[in-house]
Amino acid sequence: MSEHLPALQVVVPLFGALLAALVRRPWPAWLITVVVSIAVLVISAMLLVRVLDEGVISYHLGGWDPTIGIEYRVDIVNALILLLVSAVAAVIAPFARLSVLSEVPEDRIGWFYSMYLVALAGLLGIAITGDAFNAFVFLEVSSLSSYALIAMGRDRRALVAAYQYLIMGTIGATFYVIGVGLLYTMTGTLNLGLIADRLADVESTRSVLVALAFIFVGISLKLALFPLHYWLPNAYAYAPSVATVFLAATATKVAIYLFARFVFSVFGAGFVFADLPVTPVLVTLSVAAIFGAATVAVFQSDVKRMFAYSSVGQIGYITLGLALATVTGLTGGLVHLLNHAIIKAAIFMGLGAVFFRVGGIEFKDIAGIGRRMPITMSAIGIACLSLIGVPGTAGFVSKWYLIVASIEVGWWWLGFLIVLSSMLTVLYVGRFFECVWFREPSPEAATATEPPFEMLVPICLLAAATVYFGIDTELTAGMAQRAATALLEGLR
Amino acid sequence: MRLDVILRVVTKFILPFMMVFAIYVQFHGDYSAGGGFQAGVIAAATVILYALIYGLTAAKRIVTATMVEAMIPLGVLIYAGVGVVGWLTGSNFLDYSHLAHDQVHGQEWGVFLVEAGVFVTVSATMVAIFYAFAGRGRR
């Protein structure tokens, strides 16, 4: 059975989604989600071990040759992304039961879990496939289900947020598929590896340049690269807590993976970064994202929105690492991708627990909540410290790599900007700390208590992970370095 | 539409022919244009036409909302299930080569079953979308 692991990785959550849609009762649907989440985690861990042992795994769907059929191709880069997505899903699953029960109308809970598992299948599919068009299909699978997930938020503004995301996401997907179409006309194949092989002959044509531009902009919309991030804050703020945790930790990260895959493996770093002025463009946008989003975050009144803007900024660090296109820079970007996923999952999950107890997530609702929910707030606090990049936490490791990478290429000012931007993070995180710990409790917060055990454990687990990956960096930085080397070698 | 005798009678006449046409498009998809998607839409159109002429309540008595909502995942289940049968016959996921005695017939059977799954999901989704829009403001 182990040779079928790549297909199982996507088929298991898909079947889970179908079963959840058929049973439609809240409790069995949740149970299916838990079983599926654990199963995909086991599968992705086995895949990673096999990749480390044997190298690249190739799986031909339907037995068709990659020249005409779909190939699932797992190397160290996407094995890592698969592990991240499925690990986040496995941690969310136990937390989800009570949170979903309190935020989603009961007759829709079955559909919620169904859509959640479809989104999981889609994201895992994007990461695992070695076929450009199949990646588009999975991009749509995950996006369409995310729109539905976001629209199920309690607030009516969730509908507008979902609609905004729908429009922007569809434009992004359309741009992507136009780019893929142009690549197909130039190379006659949709397999990423084969495109990379055949691209060398047609590299200088205008069609390939236009394809790169379309794919660049299309995926940038999906990964919320500044200034194409407009859909993200509302989507995160008004979605049900579980959907926010899942999307914040995985959706943009998988889009970044796809971006890196195209830029480094398909087009090649030499073509994109040496021949074209992509580096200055991407560095400028990344720095603008880091500073712009952090500044906007300081002035938010909704805590979820504040951390959503913070996500836009943190994505800037990741794209900054990619833009440097050196082993250290790429390692920094990938390590920050992993770390930021864990950090934001911890923060949004903690906020989900607060919402569960207080029923609101504005600053005025959660004033003084730290005295009533000390464990949850400490967990969020640790994750926030990691967000700032305090030494001893995961955030420090990734920022360290990014600073070293910018000094390596001789841009000491960029390293200085990264440090300076951490100060901005201190500002908005500080505002959150002040409100939560030092203010008099609001009426809602005064009666709140710690969330139940099954919510508290996943939150503390994620907070502990942010500290653990700040000290033992073998799984994150070590793997990211190998992935960065693999990406820079390209598929050619 | 209670008083439009012509519409009501013609609808009754045309419904079986639409259904047969849907089945024709479904099964002739192997040899000419057509297949599960087109056939599913035509089949859904019969339900929608019936609902337009005889009312949503009458249509929901025949094709219930529960049935429609069960059919949506069921079709995908058929599709993915055929893929899993590929595993059981010892080949890759969605490989239909060993479903029958030889490869060509296996592929034909595989596509036939997969198209049936597409038909179920597409027709149910079309009807569900129509029910959702037509049922607005009725609660």
Report on this structure.
The complex is a heterodimer of chains A (492) and B (139). The longest helix of chain A has 35 residues, at 241-275. Chain A has helices at 5-23, 26-54, 76-103, 109-128, 132-151, 157-187, 192-202, 206-223, 231-238, 241-275, 278-298, 303-324, 327-358, 369-372, 374-388, 394-408, 412-438, 443-446, 453-471, 474-489; strands at residues 57-60, 71-74. Chain A has a domain at 277-486. Helix content of chain A is 80%, strand content 2%. In chain A, strands 1-2 form a two-stranded antiparallel sheet. Chain B has one domain. The mean pLDDT of chain B is 87. In chain B, helix 2 (36-54) packs across helix 3 (56-62). Chain B contains five helices and no strands. Chain B has helices spanning 5-27, 36-54, 56-62, 65-88, 103-134. Classes of the chains: A mainly alpha (492), B mainly alpha (139).
Short characterization:
The complex is a heterodimer of chains A (492) and B (139). Chain A has 492 residues and is mainly alpha-helical. Chain A has helices at residues 5-23, 26-54, 76-103, 109-128, 132-151, 157-187, 192-202, 206-223, 231-238, 241-275, 278-298, 303-324, 327-358, 369-372, 374-388, 394-408, 412-438, 443-446, 453-471, 474-489, and strands at residues 57-60, 71-74.
